[in-house]
Specification:
The complex is a heterodimer. By secondary structure, chain A is of the alpha+beta class. Helices cover 47% and strands 33% of the residues of chain A. Chain A has 3 domains: 1-35; 36-68 and 109-161; 70-107, no CATH class. Chain A has 5 helices and 6 strands. Classes of the chains: A alpha+beta, B alpha+beta. Strand 2 (48-49) of chain A pairs antiparallel with strand 3 (76-91) of chain B, so a sheet runs across the interface.
Chain lengths: 161, 110
Amino acid sequence: MRHHRALRFLHDFSSRLRFARITVVALSLTPMLLSGCAIMHHTQVGEIDSQAVLKGRRFEILISETGVNFDEAARVGKALTQHQQTRDDIGGVAGIISLFQMGPRTGNQVFSPMYADKAFDLIRKECPRGVVSGLVSIRETAKYPVVSGEIVKIIGYCRET
Amino acid sequence: MKIQTSKLLFSLGFMLLMGSQAGCVHLQSLSQSTIPSERTQMVRAEAYRFYFLMFNFNNDYVNDMAEQLANQCPKGHVKGVLTKHEGITYFPIIAHATRVEARGYCVAGQ
């Protein structure tokens, strides 16, 4: 009887220890996962009016849209279930979606393909009556598990006339 | 047998050493603006970041490229700007870098 209790205690202790280890690893990884990896796809520097850049006002425009990685989502879905049929169904759905997502692209798929169109209006708002120069356009992805921020960043300088 | 093993190890080590020294560079994007007729003074700016284990949390290092170019041509315009963005692999998974280079011509007083 005593031997049985000792074994149960050991079993409980080892499972608690495993849980504590997983918690510590998860907690130490959380800040890393939340901060996200920044991936730069494209950079372009435009023509420069040096007086506008050196004496003008600097502005920064950030446009972003949520991207979804369907492969990662399917993998997470498969890991969450033990049921083989459900796993197969998830794999099938992910396969069908991937057939419609072919072709070259930067970052993950987004739900609105026109999200970057407002860049022109936003630049005009930043500098309504001045010279805009020194535009640096950056296309980047802030990568998190399953989702991502698909970002267009534009840095420019406005010289009021 | 022993000699063969040591030869194999030496060859593998040598290949790894050569591979780590070479590095791979790939072009990620390139853009070029209109080239001016006056092409006497060239200006150049570069932004570089090294990544250990591919961890990178922001791309702010390219933000001041326009200022770098303007500082080299304070009384004119920088035209014909070629922007080259390249990725460098020094050693797979462990050591990577990104380099963005912008080159253009300083055209005085326009």
